[in-house]
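Annotated sample (chain length 269).
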Amino acid sequence: MPGVKTNEREGTRAVLRHTRVSVNKARQVLDLIRGQDVDRAAEILSLGDREAATIIGKVLASAVANAIHNDGLNGEELFVSACFADEGTTLKRWRPRARGRATRIRKRTSHITIIVSRLPEDRLARRRAKQAATGTQRSRRVAGSRRRQRAETEVETRSVATPEVDELEGFDDETVDDFVDELDDETVDDFDDEVADEVADEVADEDEAAGEISDETADEAEADDETADDEEGDVDEAAADETAEDEGADAQATSSDKTSGDSAEKKGK
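Output written by the structure step:
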């Protein structure tokens, strides 16, 4: 039993005639989009690196536009129900060859037809269920990410809070205001006196520490002065001894000069 003829197929079609692409090249691209959704088919054709893919992509866009504007179909519910390429007119050219001969050149053309139809109900139901599941998963991911962001923000806020805020974290604003109102002036004065006493004790401790440091510094300075005096005394004694030795040497030299002069006078006489 023969199948359905090409001109009897159901759906909205678009035909491109006498395009300068061979049938074999066009059919290799059409096999990739047959039975695919129009969105998926358009994506495949846009990523194709063949010249026929660009031409077939334009034919597919024309078929989708015809289905939307002429038949009132939803463009998101269409798929490529049929696509085929028929041989067109062959342009004949000649190429000169050796010894006065000529070679025939055949420039093939083709007729490209793409038919789009509405998806069956079972496929539409599966697609809707898949989209609903994907949307639910996305909503869950978004909600989880928002919860994590809020938790991180709360942790940062608590880490930056001061100790007073941490102590009053479990109370609301009214409780804190009531507690502040109950404080009388005597309690505040006692608290100020305690703070003043603590400050005075700290200042006294600092003064004592400074006095001890100054006493130690003075003792060290006195020790250094005594050491310097002892060293100067030793230097003076050494200098006095040297001076005495020099004077003794000068006296001996003077006596020897006198003795030699006397002896010379006696020899002259």
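Annotation: Residues 185-268 form the longest helix (84 residues).
Annotation: The chain has seven helices and five strands.
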